[in-house]
Amino acid sequence: MSAKTDSTPYSGHRARLRERLKHEPLAVADYEVLELLLGYGLTRKDTKPLARELLRRFGTVRGALDARQDELMQVPGFGPGLMALWRLQREVLARYAASAARKRQVLATPEAVARMAQSRLAGCAHEECWLALVDARNGLIFWERLRRGGIGQVPVQPRDVLEVALTHKASGIILVHNHPGGSPGPSQPDLMLTAELQRLSPRMGLRFLDHVIVTEGDCYSITQNKRI
């Protein structure tokens, strides 16, 4: 909504916040940033109390944006309309991260993979397995969801991964999945799947580069065997 058409009792306050954001963005407090964002979903309400409550519950702007749907819907004043806005901004951020990776071409480190994955999987309440395929220079050529699972697991077989890699004529494989709200440490099935892909990939002319596990604030590289 533009400032011209915003005629609510809070239009003047929001206009001033937008001006501060325009000229001195770092002078705008975290709750004020959320206040402005919430204003696009609650055009006729004072969004400052809700912004402050989101920060109180989730700690940071990122925590509020990445919170799960069930957590957000427990916050008084946060309804379906705002949830739709949250989904939209998450999708924008996820596509921005993916397009940035494609523009840079090279996925050279597990950290780069983890950043891209966390943008996509933030707030996801179930496990998902994603596949990043790269060319001979580790340039990203494919980034898509391979499987969607439940709260505690996502079933993936080596064949699922290798078939997609061969179809896209990839050189290298990076497997990514999330642990919703838990530790990024690998389970025994995670380690077994990784070992099997490490064994089978070279037989098909493929490089298995990594299996990265992400949570909302942490990540783990099975290949490098450490948190990243």
Give the amount of beta strand, in percent. Answer: 15-25%
CATH architecture of the largest domain: 3-Layer(aba) Sandwich
What class would the helix/strand composition place it in?
alpha+beta
Biggest beta sheet attributes: 6 strands, mixed
Give the ordered list of helices and strands: HHHHHHHEEHEHEEE
Percent of residues in helices comes to 40-55%
**In the residues, how many domains can be counted?**
2
What is the strand arrangement across the widest sheet? 2-1-3-4-5-6
C-alpha Rg (nearest Å): 21 Å
Mean of pLDDT: 87
- By CATH's scheme, which homologous superfamily of the largest domain applies? Cytidine Deaminase, domain 2
Reading off the top of the CATH hierarchy, the class of the largest domain is best stated as: Alpha Beta
Low-pLDDT stretches: 1-5
What is the count of helical runs?
Answer: 9
Overall, the morphology is elongated
CATH topology of the largest domain: Cytidine Deaminase, domain 2
Q: Please tally the β strands and state the result.
A: 6
Distance between the termini: 40 Å
What would your notes on this structure say?
The protein is an alpha+beta fold. The chain contains nine helices and six strands; from the N terminus they run αααααααββαβαβββ. A six-stranded mixed β-sheet has the order 2-1-3-4-5-6, sandwiched between helices. Helix 2 (30-39) packs across helix 3 (48-58) and helix 6 (80-104) packs antiparallel against helix 7. The protein is elongated. The model is unreliable at 1-5 (pLDDT under 50).
